[in-house]
Design brief:
Length: 240
C-alpha cells in the first residue's frame, strides 16, 4: 500500500534545511495568523487492519484535529498491509491511554479513538517548517507561557495530509509520519526556541507534509496546540 525507498542526509544538508526552517521566506509555512485547533483526537490503527483504514470512524467535532497513528504489528511485522506507514513512535503514545499494541490489533475493523480535553490555551506556541531536503525537513518551534510550573513537554508531529480516497480511505486523514517529544525547561521571561531536523519517512509525499504541535503540563493536559498551514498546500478537509 505504501512504498519505501532509502534516505540519507549529510551535515551540510541538515544545516541548510534548518536555516530554511528559520528563514523569514518560510513564514508562509507556519502557524502565524492561523486559528489554533481547540482539541486533538488520536486514532490508533493496527498495521494489519486494512479494514480500519477503509472505515470512516465517528464524526470529528468542529475545532478538533484527528490524527491517525498506524501501530506496527508484532504478529505480522513487515507483512502487515499497512506496515510501510506504521511508526514505532505510536508505541510511545499507547501507554498515555492505557493501551497496548495487542489491544489495537484486536480492535476488529475499527480504529481506537481517544479524545483529549480542549487545550487551556495558557501560552503561545509557534511552529514553522522549511523545505524538504534529501528526505529531511527543518522545523522551528517557539513557546512562551505565563505558567511557570516545571514539567512541561512538547510533542511535535510531522503529519501527511491525505485527501479522502487516498489509498482507499473514505475520509481525509492526518497521518502521523514522525514525531519529536521534548521535556521543556521551566518557562522564563524569554520564549523557548528550538530548531530540529525531522526525517521524512519513505513513501511520504513532501508536498503534503505539515506540522502539528502541542505543549502539555506535567499531568498531560494540553496548554496550547498549533499547526502549520503551507502556501499552495492541497485541500484535504482533514481534521477541523
Amino acid at each position: 500500500m505504501f512504498l519505501r525507498a532509502p534516505a540519507l542526509a549529510g551535515l551540510a544538508v541538515l544545516t541548510a534545511l534548518l536555516a530554511s526552517a528559520a528563514a523569514h521566506a518560510q513564514s508562509t509555512c507556519s502557524s502565524d495568523g492561523q486559528a489554533s485547533p481547540r482539541a486533538v483526537r488520536e486514532r490508533f490503527l493496527s498495521a494489519q487492519c486494512a479494514d480500519c483504514w477503509a472505515t470512516p470512524g465517528s464524526a470529528v467535532p468542529a475545532g478538533t484535529v484527528a490524527l491517525d497513528w498506524i501501530v506496527p504489528s508484532a504478529e505480522q511485522g513487515d507483512e502487515a498491509p499497512l506496515s510501510a506507514a506504521a511508526t514505532r513512535d505510536s508505541l510511545e503514545r499507547l501507554p498515555r491511554w492505557g493501551l497496548t499494541e495487542e489491544a489495537v490489533r484486536q480492535s476488529a475493523a475499527a480504529a481506537l479513538e481517544k479524545n483529549h480535553p480542549p487545550a487551556t490555551r495558557q501560552g503561545r506556541l509557534r511552529v514553522a517548517q522549511g523545505r524538504a531536503v534529501n528526505d529531511y525537513i527543518g522545523t522551528s518551534v517557539q513557546w512562551q507561557s505565563p505558567q511557570k510550573q516545571a514539567g512541561q513537554s512538547l510533542w511535535l508531529l510531522l503529519v501527511e495530509a491525505l485527501p479522502a480516497g487516498t489509498e482507499g480511505s473514505p475520509v481525509a486523514r492526518l497521518l502521523v509520519r514522525n514525531s519529536l517529544n521534548l521535556e521543556l525547561p521551566r518557562p522564563g521571561a524569554k520564549p523557548w526556541q528550538e530548531l530540529r531536523a525531522m526525517r521524512i519517512p519513505e513513501g511520504a509525499n513532501p508536498e503534503r507534509l505539515q506540522l502539528l504541535g502541542w505543549v502539555q503540563d506535567a499531568r498531560g493536559r494540553m496548554l496550547a496546540i498549533s499547526e502549520t498551514v503551507c502556501e499552495n498546500a492541497p485541500e484535504t478537509g482533514a481534521g477541523r
